[in-house]
Amino acid sequence: MVPRDSEPRKVAPVHQRSCFRPPGPTCLLVGLLSVTCLGSDPWADTVVDWVPGLGGAPGYDDPGTAIGPPERFSGEGMSPGVVSPFQPAWAPHELVSLGAGGSLILGFDDWIENDASNPYGIDLIIFGNSGFIDGGYPFGIVNGLFGADGGDISLSDDGITWHPVPGCLADSAWPTLGWLDAQPYDDVPGNEPANHLMPMDPELNWEDLIGLGWDEVMSAYGQSAGGIGIDLEDVMLERVRFVRIHNPEDAFLSPEIDAVVDVPADQPADLNGDGATDVSDLLLLLEFWGGVEAGHQADFDGNGLVDVTDLLYLLESWTS
Question: Could you tell me the pLDDT band of residue 22, with boundaries at 50, 70 and 90?
Answer without folding.
Answer: very low
